[in-house]
Amino acid sequence: MKRQIKKNKNQKSQSSIIAIILIILLCLIAIIILWRVVIPMSQNTKQLTEIRRELSKTRIGIKDVTINGDIIEITLLRGSGEINILNRTTKNYTVTKTETTTSIVTILNNLSIVSVIDVSGSMGDKDILNYYIGECKANKTSNCCTTNDCTTSLGCSTCNGTLLNNECYLYSLNTCCKDKDCFKQGNCTSCGGTWNPQPNKDPCSIKSCYDSIDYCKNNCKGVWRNKLNITQEANIKFIDNIFSKNPNNKMGIVAFSDGVNKPHDYLTLTNNLTDLKNKVNSLYPEGETNIYEGIKQAQDMLIPSTNKQKVIVLMSDGVATRPLGSPTLSAINQAILANKSNITIYTIGFGYDADTDTLKKIANSTTNGSYTYADISQLSYVYNSVVQTIPTTLTQVISENKTITEIVYEDVQIFQKLKIVIYNDTNSYVYDNITDKNILSSLESKTYSIPTGGITNINNIEIYLVVRLESGEEISQLVATWTPNSENPQYMPAVKSLK
User: Fold this and answer.
1) Which of 85, 174, 357, 404 shows a CA-CA span of 20 to 30 A to 105?
2) Pseudo-torsion of CA 445, 447, 452, 458, nearest 10°?
3) What is the pLDDT of residues 175-208, one digit of tens each?
């Protein structure tokens, strides 16, 4: 009986121990469940609450929207304040890497240019028909100009001149023709002239200041300038204009007639303005017209130049007559060869005898080349217009290798991004590649270029600020909208979620 009682007591003790062990196991399981499920859920709920609270403070407005074909440029403006809970973990390490960056810079364009000048016999005082070709300018040291200042319109007119391009030109002492249009037959004869129309000549034969050198000097009290003199003056100004753009430019001079046979005919590339002007002023008219040799000599001077921009400015007053055989075709073919050396040719036809057709073909044989006609009073202006046409700057893409040291975070608990939704009446497109590093900061304005995703006739754009939790869950909040009639910048408090 005692043994039976003792046995029952032992069984009860064992049962109590088992019960206690089971209770302990259940408590441990409960703790694990609490640790693994309940507490994270509580923390996640707390995190969600904090995120929603911070999102409600966020102000991002659409400042401007520009739609260019398949690309939309959206400028956003962010108000003050950041989302404070978007912090990374403190565990991090440093890495060093090499990164290649490219940038586009604008630099001053160093130019190599050659002025190729026709100095054939027709550039002298008379043309091939023995007519005087030139201009009669008022003598600034004469009594009339000293008293009346011929650099002004009134003073020039008082001295029987016409002010043109700041120069006082003397045309006729016949005051009748100053009051009447003597290019009309009746006015011509009534003013004592003879009506005698001829090609490229004044139809009214009245003694004029440019009829001869003697009449200009002795009767009109002017200064005679033939075509070469006018060309020299235009080139002096041309030289000054070239180097006012960039003192590092290089310039050469080539004078052609029968050919370019003597050192006197050219000056190689230099930036010495005195040498250039002296060379121009030393030129004199003689011989035939060999445009081919003028281009070839200029090309030979330009090819060795290290400057990327290479230009020939060719002026001629007549038809190419040398080399024998095919003088015009030879000149055009030489221009084609110059183009292969990346040389641009600008041509100027000086006066009515210039071979316009050939000069146009020469210019058109080169990339960006052009032709311009100039009469006696326009030559300096035309040379200056060429200067304005030549590009003065170049853009270059520069690549540079940089060593960058940055902190790499071991884990990112939470990050943010922008999601942009584009609508038309039937379709929509979502773009969500604007992440942490590219998202605008407090009080920052930033322009984003994004694709339209093929959406046309866009009538609505929505901007969402997206926060992603460590768990992978995303919270999206509408922060701005745009329609074609929106007033920008437009802000919107967080009122709509996008799941």
Assistant:
1) 404
2) 50
3) 676 666 666 777 777 777 777 777 656 677 777 7
